[in-house]
Amino acid sequence: MGIDKVEPSDAELVRRVRTGDIGAYGALVSRYRDRLGRYAVHMIGDREDAEEALQDSFVRAYRSLARCDDPARFGAWLYGILVNRCRTTGARAARRRRLFVHDAQALSGAAHAEQADRLDWTDAVDRALARLAPEYREAFLLKHVEDLEYDEISELTGAGVSALKMRVKRAREQLQKYLREAEHV
Amino acid sequence: MIIAALLLVTQVVAQDPRLERLDPDTRSAVAAVADSANGVGLPVEPIIQRALEGATKGASGARIVAAVRRLAVDLGTARLALGTSASAPELEAAVAALRAGATPQVLAHLRDVRRPPLTMALSVLADLVASGVPADSAGAAVLALAPQARDADLVDFRRAVERDIALGAPPGAATSVRLNAGALDVSSGSPSSGNPARPRRP
Amino acid sequence: MFEPEDETVERLIQHLRRPVAMDAGLDARVMREIAQASSPRRRVWPLPWSVAAAAAVLGAVLVARPWARNATSRADTLQFVLIAPQAASVSLVGDFNDWDPARSPMQTAHGIWATALRLAPGRYRYAFLVNGVEWRADPGAPAAKDDEFGTPSSVVTVGGRGS
Q1: Which residues are CB-contacts of C94 (< 8 A; sequence separation ≥ 6)?
Q2: Which of the two residues, A110 and B87, has the higher pLDDT score?
Q3: ipTM surpasses cut 0.95
Q4: B91-109: pLDDT as tens digits
């Protein structure tokens, strides 16, 4: 409302939620849904479980919003909740296929060479990520995909910066190895 | 005695205060349809509700009467497929399934493989088709699940398929993938990879 | 800075950085869950009086479990939710209430409209009537395809078996 067309900042939205404007939280959800979803999908490896983790995290964040000390850094705080939630995703639905869209395309006979290449590559990426130890995958995704700084990651995960750097390095080495293996099959 | 009973039913239907929302001509036409349906043992309530839906939505009398006539016929077809012991909710769900393209044979087969009530199974079948799944795929999927799945499992299946479709999967493929995913243990690898995939868990 | 062997990893990183589109329905599910939890007792910061009153009304009509799958009862209590911040009124209308807009008016808090109904087993067509004139289907429910009256409707089914 009003003349100002600039989107409200996270801090402003948090402030509004705290004064009772629940709808303002909807704006925060929309703002962060896809970004956090990307992390959840790659970390958990199952779209449905990732959505559930994401939904849970948003709800938890709302309920504990009073504990967000710095509303301007709501995003980072929300990440912390999501990272923890992703850790607790159990072995439920281990049978579910991952990233069915690729399976569906395969089923419908994607014969086009380029498409097949893309499928194989995406598959190889998924498998390589899946083979990483969870702490390595977590650190790798937060650093290289979500672009967080090491001190931010340290805050979220509770691990020290040098430990994190080592995990990311190991993750890179292992991913390289797994991708090479996949190429030679 | 039977005639008196039928007359009584007609009067009861015509006197249903809910029908007063219809104009007199429409009201008597709807009452007549409901009466014939009841005369052959079909449920009256769905017919009343369809008329009331039309009334609330401001549909013309002709449209309302056509709708309730079509419903009465379809309820009859549903009952032929499911048998005379089918309940009103089952018949209504069966109508939806038939209108979605399921064949009476599929309905009869469902009756043979699943303990009643069939309401949820039939509904899921209709809802899958409403999401774009071809009728034969939907029918095959529901029949495959019907012997063992609980109602809640069928709902979960339908939601999973709908979600996959919303994310871009071809509807038929989404259905078979979800069906097979339920049967397989752990995600399986594609033929090109030598390593079986491990599910990713933190 | 990176050696040639790292090209593979860089390619992987670029691939992973591609945007992922999550289900847009997630927003509504989150807001629904939040609205359900809103009640004066649960608030963690002081709310203005009017908001607290609205939340109390909303809390009074919502039940704790959405889409209850109660194995022992035959009837289910179901929540119906519509997010319509601009609406002045929303009614739930369907086979369960004679399509009478006066029977199930919905309550709102901050644009989230909700009501709960106890439903016997059956398949029910329904829709939301917004401002008394606009028909809306439920975005979170299967569509009623056999729509003979030209307006969108949705379907909810109660199975009626303790599964």
Answers
A1: C124, C125, C126, C127, C153, C156
A2: B87
A3: no
A4: 999 999 999 999 999 999 9
Q: How confident is the model at residue C22 (pLDDT cuts 50, 70, 90)?
A: confident
C47 contacts in A (CB within 8 Å)? 19-20
Residues of A in contact with B174 (CB under 8 A): 100, 104
pLDDT digits (tens, 9 = 90+) for B30-40: 999 999 998 88
Beta bridge partners of C129: C91, C135
Residues of C in contact with B26 (CB under 8 A): none
Q: Is B126 within 8 Å of C145 when comparing Cβ atoms? A: yes
Helix (H, G, I), strand (E, B) or coil at C82: strand
Q: Where are the alpha helices (DSSP H) in A45-133?
A: 47-63, 74-87, 100-107, 113-131
CA distance linking residue B95 with residue B75, whole number of Å: 6
Length of chain B equals 202
Q: Supply the pTM of this predicted model.
A: 0.53
The answer to whether residues A138 and A157 touch, using CB atoms and an 8 Å cutoff, is yes
- Closest by CA to C160, choosing from B154, B24, B181, A178, is B154
B159/A127 Cα distance (integer angstroms): 27
Q: How far is C56 from chain A (nearest CA, A)?
A: 13
C139 cis-preceded (ω within 30 degrees of 0) = no
